[in-house]
Write a structure and sequence with these properties.
Number of helices: 25
Strand content: under 5%
Number of strands: 2
Length: 665
């Protein structure tokens, strides 16, 4: 007997799947095992039943053409206000997006963006950009999303309405979840949720974020956390009045209850699962027009799938299953991308036929499912593999080995195509993750460098040594397919440039310090010359006073003659002191370097006098010593400089520092 085993239910939002599937809304999730588990264990399963649960549509998302036509008719009226237009644009965009009619959805998104820019309504522009980013993610166009995220963040910064920033953050969260960065997604949600909770008008966005958290924890098989966030989603959806969100939350809670049933296999634990599914289904009839036919068909398919978990199908359950599958087929007759749902309904009928040992009828349903799936482009290989595998087993059981081999070959082919599809999708996500992480790293580096530059600037200002000598700038780029080696080279060039700038700063600082040191040396030498001149002046005055005192004691002295003589000597002295002050600034430094023995201050005075061309008698008069003492000092200086007796000291000093002035007489 051919039996159908219901796969373990793991909630995965459509953006986190490894395969491309047709998303129903922000929170379309799959009933079945994880896709990787399905691929590697497909041959062990009798029938891989993969159905879409009821999903959240964001706004009213009815499949009836009259409702959509009514929205379009309102939009064409000239009397409609801008706020009403924005509301209609959001509804139309949501409707066509969840219906996988992306080109039409993008058309309304663009119109909404243009109107928002004309009206300078930044919040609505951010909402439209968020929709645009989600559409691109649904189409696996990951590379285009970062630019949209940046645009949404830029517009949100201009807006005075803080809700704009929340929608920009929601797009970033959505993108992170698509890339499979579950931990980062949780961090971003936990950061955003407290802000969303401050705005009662954004209760629906609050429900979406809690629903995302539920999906992540359900995928991790964390039943406790998944149940907690599913219950929050139910409470918030009830307050928001959005029946689509409420139906999705009910289905989510059913999945949470199913964790316990999967462990115990106790039919008592299956009852709350069925009850939650019934609540999701009942909303379609309780609130006509609030739930789309397409979404209702998904809820019916999910409920029917749980009914098949019963080991024995009672007549009542069989009748209900048959009625629900018929209703599913009727509801999806005019629905876009209906093949997966109808194939699921036919799978239920095939299961019932197998339980009745009616292989011919089961074969009929399976062949019809295969035909339906082949009409969908691209083919949804997960369900196709299950159907083909069941057909191969059915023909093998009937000993129709030719057909069994044919479908076994198809199974191998579809497995290969699914693997290739998963590889391509994985490569796209990994590339997007790499680009996202690279951009975050670049931003982090830029922020760190900006902080460092700021600290250096304050340091230079505080010390008063140098000012800001350069401006730092870098351009962010979105060349997502640049090789890592090129990025590494750019980084090395940047570090090299910074090192060169640092070296240049150090060289300039050293040059400045050296100039200051030389200036201080010159000032010191000039001061030394001035001190020497002052000492000579004081000594001369003291000598004059002593001479006057001696001469005044003589009553026969001619005062006029003394004054005249003194004036002549004083004039000579002034010339001498002036010449000393005009000595080369490095005079004393160089004669000290030339001397082989240490020179005393008195030696330096004699050197200065000799350099100025003063004769022995003049030096004796200035220093008030005997000429003999001056000649002895000259002899001693020659010894200290290592000169022979025939080398004049004044010529020696002139050789060190030539001067243009004439000698003193």
């Amino acid at each position: 007997m051919m039996t159908t085993k219901r796969l373990q239910i793991i909630i995965i939002t459509y953006q986190t799947n490894n395969c491309k599937q047709h998303p129903i809304s922000d929170f379309c999730f799959v009933t079945g095992m994880c896709l990787q588990f399905l691929y590697f264990h497909l041959m062990k399963l009798k029938y891989a039943f993969l159905s879409f649960l009821f999903s959240f549509a964001g706004m009213l998302c009815t499949a009836q053409n009259s409702f959509i036509d009514g929205l379009k008719d309102q939009l064409s009226r000239s009397s409609i206000s801008s706020s009403e237009k924005f509301k209609i644009y959001n509804e139309l965009t949501e409707y066509y997006r969840v219906s996988d009619q992306y080109s039409t959805a993008e058309k309304y998104v663009q119109q909404q963006i243009e109107l928002a820019r004309t009206e300078h309504h930044y919040t609505e522009e951010v909402k439209a950009l968020s929709q645009k980013g989600i559409i691109k993610l649904n189409q696996s166009e990951y590379g285009q999303v970062p630019a949209i995220i940046d645009a949404a963040n830029t517009v949100a910064q201009k807006s005075r309405d803080k809700t704009a920033a929340l929608y920009a953050a929601y797009l970033n969260i959505y993108y992170s979840n698509v890339l499979g960065e579950s931990e980062n997604t949780i961090k971003l949600i936990q950061k955003t949720l407290p802000e969303v909770e401050k705005y009662p008008s954004e209760i629906l966005l609050n429900a979406k974020l809690n629903y995302l958290l539920y999906g992540i924890y359900a995928e991790w098989n964390d039943a406790k956390s998944a149940t907690q966030y599913a219950q929050k989603a139910i409470d918030l959806a009830q307050k928001s009045g959005n029946k689509n969100m409420l139906s999705s939350a009910y289905s989510a809670m059913a999945v949470c209850y199913s964790f316990r049933y999967d462990k115990t296999k106790d039919l008592k634990d299956l009852e709350p699962v069925i009850e939650m599914c019934k609540k999701a289904v009942s909303l379609y009839h309780e609130f006509p027009g609030h739930v789309s036919d397409y979404a209702h068909a998904l809820a019916l398919l999910n409920l029917s799938n749980y009914y098949l978990s019963y080991p024995e199908i009672t007549p009542e359950i069989r009748t209900e299953l048959q009625n629900k599958t018929k209703e599913i087929l009727d509801l999806t007759e005019n629905t876009t991308y209906k093949q997966n749902i109808q194939a699921g309904a036919l799978g239920i009928l095939s299961n019932l036929a197998t339980r009745d040992h009616n292989d011919a009828l089961a074969e009929q349903y399976l062949l019809k499912s295969e035909h339906l799936l082949l009409t969908q482009k691209p083919i949804y290989y997960h369900i196709m593999i299950s159907v083909v595998n069941d057909l191969a087993q059915l023909y093998a059981r009937q000993q129709n080995y030719q057909k069994a081999y044919e479908y076994q070959s198809k199974l191998t082919e579809y497995n290969g195509l699914l693997y290739d599809e998963n590889q391509v999708e994985t490569a796209k996500r990994l590339e997007a993750q790499y680009q996202s992480q690279k951009k975050e790293a670049e931003l982090l580096v830029l922020n760190e460098k900006a902080d460092s530059l700021k600290k250096e600037k304050f340091l230079y200002i505080g010390l008063g040594i140098i000012g800001l000598i350069g401006a730092f700038f870098m351009f962010r780029s979105y060349h997502y397919k640049l090789r890592y080696s090129i990025e590494r080279e750019k980084k090395l060039n940047t570090e090299k440039h910074e090192a060169e700038m640092q070296v240049q700063l150090q060289e300039e600082e050293q040059a400045r310090l050296k100039a200051e040191e030389e200036l201080l040396t010159l000032q010191q030498q000039k001061l030394q010359s001035e001190v020497l001149a002052s000492q000579l002046h004081i000594q001369h005055k003291n000598k004059v006073l002593q001479q006057l005192q001696t001469q005044l004691s003589d009553t026969d002295i001619n005062i006029r003659q003394v004054v005249k003589e003194e004036n002549r000597v004083d004039q000579d002295f002034e010339k001498t002191t002036f010449r000393i002050q005009e000595l080369h600034p490095d005079f004393f430094k160089h004669i000290n370097e030339k001397a082989r023995q240490k020179l005393t201050p008195l030696d330096l005075k004699y050197c200065a006098y000799l350099y100025l061309g003063m004769e022995t008698k003049q030096i004796a008069n200035l220093l008030n010593v005997e000429p003999k003492s001056v000649r002895m000092t000259k002899y001693r200086l020659k010894k200290k400089f290592g000169l022979d007796e025939n080398t004049p000291l004044d010529a020696f000093f002139q050789g060190i520092f030539p001067k243009n002035s004439t000698r003193l007489h």
